[in-house]
Structure formats: C-alpha cells, structure tokens
Amino acid sequence: MSDPRFFVGLMSGTSVDGVDALVLALQDDQLEIIACHDEPYPEPLRLAILSLCQPGINEIDRLGVVDRDVADTFAKAALTVIDQADLKVGDIEAIGSHGQTIRHRPSQDKTFTLQIGDAHRIAELTGITTIADFRRRDIAAGGQGAPLTPAFHRVAFGIGGNATAVVNIGGICNVTLVDANDKLIGFDSGPGNTLMDAWVRKHHDRPFDQNGLWAESGQVNEDLLECCLNDPYFSAAAPKSTGPEYFNLKWLEGLLEPLPYRISPEDVQRTLLELTARSVAAALDNEPLAQLAVCGGGAKNTLLMTRLSALLYPTQVITTKALGIDPDWVEAAAFAWLASRTLDGLAGNEPSVTGARGYRVLGAVFPA
Fold first, then answer.
1. pLDDT at 7 over 70
2. 5-144+328-366 CATH choice from 3.30.540.10, 3.30.420.40, 3.30.70.660, 1.10.357.140
3. Which of 20, 208, 224, 239 sits a CA distance of 20 to 30 A from 168?
4. What's this model's pTM, rounded to 2 decimal places?
C-alpha cells in the first residue's frame, strides 16, 4: 500500500459567503477527508465581491484589490485547515483553489469565465504549490468550463449503471448522472439557491431562508412559475452552464413587472423554491434512478428536499452524507482531487459534460 498524498481543496461558490477548505487524503484510488474548515468572508469583502459580479465603474482597480483580499482569505483558510488536520505545510502536496467566480459567460458570442483569488499570493502566503484557474482550459477547448464536479462525483460516489444521480444545489444547480451506456452526463439545470438567497436578503436582510421556513409560509404562484420556466435556458440542450450573471434579481424583477397584480414576497419565495425543484425534476425526467443524492447548501433546505422527493417519487432522495461525504464539502473535495489530477498530468474535464473537444489537463501550477 502506498503512502497517502495530502491535498487542500479551497472553494467559494456563487453564494459568496466564505471559503470551504478541507484536507483530502488520496491513497490507492481511495479518498478520505481529514479535516474541514469554513472561513467566512469579512462583510466588506463579501460586498466588494458581489459588486464585481455585475458590470460597474472602475472595475479594474476594484478587481485588483479584491483579487488580493480573496487570496488572503483563501490562504488563511488553507493554513487553518492544515493545522486542524494536525499536519505540517510540508505534508501538503498542493492546494487546489477554485477561486471566486465573478463572471461566467458561456454563450458562444462572448465565451469566458473569470475566477479571482491571486494564486501567486496563496502560494507565497502558504508556502504550498497552488493550482488554480481550472475552468479556462476547458473553455479554450470549446467547452463550457462547467460543471467540473461530475468527474469527481463518479470517482467519489461510484455512481454508474444509471442508478444514482448527484445534484449539487449551490447558488446554481448542477446535475450529474451516468446513462445506460455508462456515459457521464452533467450540466447546470438552472438556479439553485441564488434567487431565493437574493430575495430573502432583499426583504429580510438575511443571507438565506433557513430550512425554507419563509418559503413555506407562502404559496406557489403558477403565473410567475410559468414565466420562469418559459425562459429558454431550461429548454436548451446540454452541454450548458449558467451563473448569477444570468439568474439574478434583475431577471426576476423583469418577470414580476409585467404581471397584472402584485405577488406577496413570501409567495415569490415559495415560487422560487418550486422553480429550483421543478427544474431539477425536469432535468432528470425519464431517467430510471434509484437514488438522487443532494449536496450543497440546498441539502439543508427541508422544504426543497421534500419537494424533490415528491416530484421524483419513487426515486429515493438522500444527501451525499449517506454516500460518504457531507453535502457541505463535496465541491472543495472536488478541487483538491482536481489538483492531484493536474500534478499527475491527467485530464480533469469530461467532454461529454462540458462540450470540450477532448480531455484536457486543467489548471495552472504556481510553485511554492
């Protein structure tokens, strides 16, 4: 048996609440999470990041400062989780840093993606080789640059035989499944929590709707739901990916404004939750699944999990904890694993998922 190799995974998603950090041990094709840590963003930094997620004035100067400050938060998270794992910096082979996405434009006329969090600075502050910028090579090869987690889902959860799907419900929702021919399929099905989080923040100044309780106080408005589901993104064929640049409050308000009557805020929230649930169910329509495993923040939304169970019955809806990884840590683990692939010169993308012209080694290496 070979000695374990240790990697740190760093992830901050479209919810922009902080950095998920973990230490992943890889040994003979087995993986184990050794320690986990959540490093919240300071509020001024969180707001600065959000301001960069939409076009605005003086973007380059603001980007330079935020790129540095995000890197500092990522480096702090990495050093903290290494200490929690009772390991030394020298024990870590590499850090896999997803960075913080501030733009993802996968449309053919202006395709690009941008994640910030200066990897030079992370390597300098931690003394650990850092691998970052995972998405742009796939885009250069004609892909969407997303989602990148399906390849990890297959390895980590052993999904195959078209029996299990994995759905990550973060800000955006992405789906992973293996079809009857063992072909890996994955794509973004649409908004996960991003619209619900933005709406509850606007009306109650809270970062999210705890357990879906506010949504539960409302009723689904079928007119609004129909308007949402009529968006062409939902009927577009995969490969496809999206982000909060597309599904945001401006998008929602553009649908609310033409309606001939006012919808109460709680009914809007309930409808947004239903939009997430129904778009996931539609994405998995006609797939003979025994299990659907949910990860990401949406796994904690009791009402959302209940609706998924009802819409997908008799498919069993569980969380990835039942498959060995807590829902909070799946994406950070994926980028630790992707870092190992990069160092080993192995492909990290799945062309059947992203639409790239072929398999590519992802990420840029920033030596310690």
1. yes
2. 3.30.420.40
3. 224
4. 0.94
